[in-house]
Design goal:
This protein is an alpha/beta fold. It is 29% helix and 26% strand. It is built from eight helices and 15 strands. A hairpin with a 2-residue loop joins strand 14 and strand 15.
């Protein structure tokens, strides 16, 4: 059985959880988006590297995303596309949570890449978000002085939930001190828009073929969290973004569990997934 070893105090903490002596930290709802574009003969995906100073997933290459802002569930947010209720059915969430998840996915993607999955009520999609006024709004969203509803309303825009597709659902293992209940989405880079190195929680960004990213991780050049690694492995099978978006996914919830393997505490998945060869 593969998995990630839990040495020292972390292993003892895991034993305490298994024994019912320690209560796991609750998982916070979160959303993340694998942003895709056409490459040379394969799909390319956008990734950012979290700063080494970050408390969670420091140094890891991840998709844009983050936890829900309570205001993400605001019904005042202008909306176009599949309803919150429809998203709730896909992700097995109540309507309010589903609304927050989709809004967080769009908001976080804009905050962390500069790409906005929104458009006008007439059906067009925003084509350019690179001006100084857009940057001022992006920074205001990050520091929470501007709500997503006010941001869209002031610009006469609607959230385009039809630009997103559901992909996966991962919950952080119970042994972790910071836990997230994360729904994964995929989306195509809108025509005319481009990603930017926007800083903040990241110190590097890149576009790359999923298979190349996995190879770099296997060679020890970069660090990937297990959900990111598995998602990249799934996306590596596609040559066209349209094929990814057309894929019908049954959303299965994965939560790596704590187990004792040959006297050593480990994080494992029930299907024997080896966390990128660990």
């Amino acid at each position: 059985m593969g998995g990630i070893p839990l040495p020292g105090e972390l292993g003892e903490h895991a034993r305490g959880i298994l024994a019912g002596q320690v209560k796991p930290v609750p998982a916070r709802d979160a959303a993340t988006v694998a942003l895709l574009r056409e490459g040379s003969g394969a799909v390319e995906v956008y990734l950012l590297r979290r700063k080494a100073s970050m408390a969670f997933a420091a140094g890891a290459y991840v998709f844009p995303g983050g936890s829900l802002d309570p205001r993400d569930a605001d019904q005042a947010i202008a909306w176009s596309g599949p309803s919150p209720a429809a998203w709730g059915e896909v992700f097995r969430a109540d309507e309010r949570t589903a609304r927050g998840l989709v809004c967080a996915a769009v908001r976080e993607t804009f905050e962390e890449s500069g790409v906005l999955l929104a458009g006008t009520p007439t059906g067009s999609v925003v084509a350019d978000t690179t001006g100084d006024d857009w940057e001022a709004d992006r920074l205001a969203l990050i520091d929470r002085t501007l709500s997503f509803a006010d941001f869209l309303g002031r610009r006469g825009l609607v959230l385009r939930s039809d630009l997103l597709r559901p992909w996966a659902h991962w919950i952080t293992p119970e042994v972790e001190s910071r836990r997230f209940d994360t729904r994964f989405f995929v989306a195509a880079l809108p025509s005319g828009q481009r990603t930017r190195d926007v800083g903040g929680e990241a110190d590097e960004v890149l576009w790359a073929r999923p298979a190349d990213v996995i190879t770099r991780a296997a060679e020890g050049q970069i660090f990937l969290m297990p959900p990111t690694h598995r998602t990249l492995g799934e996306l590596a099978a596609y040559e066209k973004v349209a094929d990814v978006l057309a894929t019908e996914r049954e959303i299965v919830t994965f939560m790596p569990r704590i187990a004792e393997v040959d006297g050593e505490m480990r994080i494992v998945l029930d299907d024997g997934y080896r966390f990128g060869g660990v």
